[in-house]
Amino acid sequence: MGSSSSKPAKAKKRSKASNISSPQELMLHVPRPVLDYNQRPIRIEDYELNRKSLLAALTTMANYIDSHRQNITVVTVGGAVNTILLRTREATHDIDFFGTNINNNQRVLLDEAAKYAERHSRTPLGGEWFNNQTMLWLPPDVHRRVTNEALRQNEVVFETPGLRLVAAPWNYSFCGKMNRLVRPDQARPYDLADAVAYLRRYIHKHGGHPVSKADVVAWSRGYQKDTSVEVMKAVNQEYKRVHGTNAISGLPRR
């Protein structure tokens, strides 16, 4: 692999890509699929990436994008938020991003920048280390709403000229964890801890008071996620164990 100190060649002209995606535009997948001779997708290996490796790779990406005279903001959700911003996990295997605020020219540039970072990384990143697969599960109206809310929330995960990552809305991320916790066969060992961390951040940003059960139900409905009283109770119990206070009010005692 090449040295991370290598610099991309400067582009001569600024891209004229718009910052707003057309509602009719089919959003490109990042990374673009790699196919074998029979046009079948090639399986891509992934790796556990710690905070240092993620920040180094993102910085290389940012330098590449900046060399093309672009500055792109995307929304990120999941392990990258925990590893880089919250520091509640030691590592994650990828950075999930999305955003209706960018167009396909910018997605192509992000794909190129991610591949450039992979080639020049001192540690293996994996071909899908920076991907927008999460957008496949977002209905268009929810995608637009969550993007706008994330930009307003403005919780910066990473920022260097060329590239800026902001966290998805805390209540959206919280609902995503509940959506998995209601399905024991899909839940992961860290989902409950993540739900508590995201709810803690939301409460801290909104006056420090517990949220109501009705609010949680409304959030889930609006983001098209599932929840249950049992899951809310489990989150509240874990939150109280960790932080010494209730997080969700209005829950039945039994």
Question: Which keywords apply here?
Answer:
8 helices, disordered N terminus, 254 residues, alpha/beta
Q: Could you state the order of secondary-structure elements as H and E?
A: EHEHEEHEHEEHHEHHE
Structural class: alpha/beta
Mean pLDDT: 89
Low-pLDDT segments: 1-7, 9-24
Number of strands: 9
The strand line-up of the biggest sheet is: 5-4-2-7-6
Radius of gyration from the alpha-carbon trace, in angstroms: 19 Å
How many DSSP helices?
A: 8
The major β-sheet equals: 5 strands, mixed
Molecular structure report:
By secondary structure, the chain is α/β, with parallel strands linked by helices. 43% of the residues lie in helices and 12% in strands. It is built from eight helices and nine strands. A five-stranded mixed beta sheet has the order 5-4-2-7-6, sandwiched between helices. Helix 1 crosses helix 3, helix 5 runs antiparallel to helix 6 and helix 6 crosses helix 8. The N terminus is likely disordered.
